[in-house]
Amino acid sequence: MFHILGDRERDRFIAELGAVVPSGGLYCVLGDVRYDDRETYGLSPDELRWRFEAVGGWDVVFSFRTVFKRRWSSNPAYLVGVKRR
């Protein structure tokens, strides 16, 4: 549920992710598209790239634009994979 976290929570989440993802491990996130950098909700591959680069030890290895389908709706989304070095 990364795409619903605020900026501080996102930074903390990423900083602590290394405690549960071993070296060589892959973290995959599926979330709604963030249309505007001022919005809290949603995500973008560029945002994930700079947040993980700021922590160090991670590489974005794939990013796909897709659709997040729910029972009554569907929204543009991204599926992003980030690998721990």
Automatic annotation (TrEMBL):
It comes from the Archaea. This is Methyltransferase domain-containing protein. It comes from Haloferax larsenii.
